[in-house]
Amino acid sequence: MGVFQNLGVEPIINASGTVTRLGGAPMHASTLAAMREAAENWVPIEQLQGAASNLISEVTGAEAGMVTSGAAAGLTLGAAAIMTGDDLGLMERLPQTDGSANEFIMAREQRSGYDHAVRASGAKIVEVGFNEIVSGAGVRRTEIWEYEAAIGERTAGIFYVFTNDSVPPLEEVVACAKRHQLPVLVDAAGELPPRSNLRWVVSTGADLVTFSGGKAIRGPQSTGILCGRQKLVGAAALQMLDMDDHPELWQPPEELIQRPAASGLPRHGIGRGMKVSKEEIVGLLTALEMFVKGEYVSDLEHYRSYLQTIQEALAPTSTNATIIESSDGERWPILEVQLKDPQHDAFAICQNLRQGKPPIYLGHGKLSCGILVVNPVCLNTESANILGQRLLEEMS
Ligand SMILES: *Cc1c(COP(=O)(O)O)cnc(C)c1O
Fold first, then answer.
1. Residue 117 CA: which ligand 1 atom is closest?
2. Which ligand 1 atom lies nearest to the CA of residue 69?
3. For 3-21+296-395, CATH number?
4. DSSP secondary-structure letter at 363?
5. pLDDT higher than 90, residue 40
């Protein structure tokens, strides 16, 4: 019996990828070994975050960086840091922000459930532009003048969600923000690979950038990166780290935290509930180094073979199963199975597979188009075989 069965929970076959709901990315054996070693030794967490800052700077080109409890925590802490700077009084008041600059301007079409993480800091979101393409009402996307027109006394910064398709381009939004001396906070949580994005997003001049640690970096599911200007990353670190030390003994790592100009130390901040353990920090840094060196690229061949196994299993059916390769050659391929009866089958098959033994979770992003998606990153030879057979049963 395994750890999950002992608790009465049945392990699943995850064909849905590195999604949070199903437990995130597969960690490499070296990452797990590093976490185990970290668990058996002790270090001051702020010194470890200082070391993290050095490595994150090296691989992103940012002035400083830290490990957060996921990209979403990076958004809360990033928004907090932008609103407080190194003002201890403002830090202490969060999430109360009445009377100070607390507005983040963002494109309406970039809004998602993750914005809650920005609002959790006490920030208010001010929407600009429309979502005319989705609403079927027009062809235009958000335009720079719309950001510019929304800037006012209460504006703290601009919040931007980066994807390949984001409009206006990040560089133009950063240039607009600079004209008004405003910082830009960027959510790039899922935009790796390509590995080059680690540097590219920071190189636009964006002030703070978050990436998930538990997606393609394949670190612990509960980790992320917040990187950017040292002053802001330092203010974020001060609001996440445990602050229970004597001011006269406290020695923050200089690469990460500049001692607040005002005398005194902040108390536990808005991010104290988002703490990251030494094992998680070491796990993320180990995984990050492997990701940056391209050590996961050789796994793509295995992923392709799992998808081919499933494709071959489905050959006797008349469904159309296509392997879709990524254009950057770094992201894993996926398999799309187009069903014949688009209205009914996809949801029913998905549900039957979830309720089978072992439970199988397919990618569910295209069910309403009658397409089942197989993401291979959490599969192996055995689970790919089982998945192929179960799919064949469901379709025969
Ligand atoms: C995954 C994701 C997040 C959240 O990242 P976590 O590391 O799970 O906290 C935020 N924004 C976007 C766009 C994401 O895809």
1. 10
2. 9
3. 3.90.1150.10
4. B
5. yes
Report the candidate in 74, 54, 70, 32 with the shortest Cα–Cα distance to residue 282: 32
Which pLDDT score is estimated for 345?
84
Tell me where in the chain the CATH 3.90.1150.10 domain(s) lie.
3-21+296-395
The CA 72 to ligand 1 mean position distance, Å, reads 6
Question: Which DSSP symbol is given to 264?
Answer: S
Domain with CATH 3.40.640.10 in the chain: 29-292
Q: Is 23 in the pocket of ligand 1 (CB under 6 A)?
A: no
d(CA 185, CA 157): 7
Ligand 1: centre distance to CA 20 (Å): 9
* Gap between the Cα atoms of 91 and 80, Å rounded: 8
Q: Which atom of ligand 1 is nearest to the CA of 212?
A: 7
Quick one: pLDDT at residue 344?
58
Assigned CATH for 29-292: 3.40.640.10
- Distance (angstroms) between ligand 1 centre and the Cα of 191 equals 10
List Cα–Cα distances, 299 to 122, 169, 295, 304, in angstroms: 42, 32, 8, 9
Residue type for 207, please? D
Report CA(189)–ligand 1 centroid distance (Å): 5
190 lines ligand 1 (CB under 6 A): yes
72 pocket-lining for ligand 1 (C-beta < 6 Å) = yes
Ligand 1 centroid to 219 CA: how many Å? 14
C-alpha to C-alpha distance for 195 and 281, rounded to whole angstroms: 20
pTM of the model: 0.96
Ligand 1 contact via 197 beta carbon (within 6 Å): no
Reported as a single tens digit per residue, the pLDDT across 11-31 is 999 999 999 999 999 999 999
Q: Which is it for the CA torsion 8, 11, 16, 21, positive or negative?
A: positive
